[in-house]
Design goal:
Order of helices and strands: HHHHHHH
């Protein structure tokens, strides 16, 4: 059993040191230390040994397992450092990534965001009229007839018939 364990250790170390990438290293780790790995199967055979040999073999298996795990972690750190020092060649003649052209004005973005929030809680966005009626702009708000806001230079008036729906408010 001791010879078998030493063979597993030597074979494992040689396999780990010859690995070139992380995927292959993980496959070797599973093959050695996985549920059906060679070292795991050897650990299960300890139950068949005489009682006098069990402590020595258990100690040897734990040492071998520690050596294999340390070797794997060292190889993994070596592979990681090789990947970080590996430089990717840049083709300076290759066209770059074009940035997106244009965007909505910040105020428009804010209005859309606020509208979205209020629509989620049940409000509806409506647009105000381009032309304001005298009644809504001044009279309904109790502006007197001689108020400066009604001055001819401040406000333009349009003569147009009142909409039938709006007539009920006059």
């Amino acid at each position: 059993m001791k010879d078998k364990l030493l063979n597993i250790k030597n074979e494992a170390i040689s396999l780990i040191l010859s690995v070139q990438d992380k995927k292959e290293l993980e496959e070797i780790r599973i093959r050695l230390l996985g549920r059906n790995g060679s070292l795991t199967l050897a650990m299960k055979e300890i139950a068949k040994l005489p009682i006098e040999e069990k402590p020595q073999m258990g100690k040897l298996i734990n040492e071998i397992k520690g050596i294999i795990e340390n070797t794997i972690s060292e190889k993994l750190s070596t592979l990681n450092s090789q990947l970080s020092t590996h430089h990717i060649a840049i083709d300076v003649t290759e066209p770059g990534i074009r940035p997106p052209l244009g965007h909505l004005h910040l105020v428009t973005q804010a209005i859309e965001e606020i509208t979205f929030i209020f629509e989620r809680i049940g409000f509806t966005r409506v647009r105000y009229p381009e032309i304001e009626w005298d009644w809504y702009a001044f009279t309904a708000l109790n502006f007197p007839e001689n108020h400066p806001a009604r001055d001819e230079w401040e406000t333009f008036f349009i003569d147009e018939e009142t909409h039938p729906k709006k007539a009920q408010y006059y």
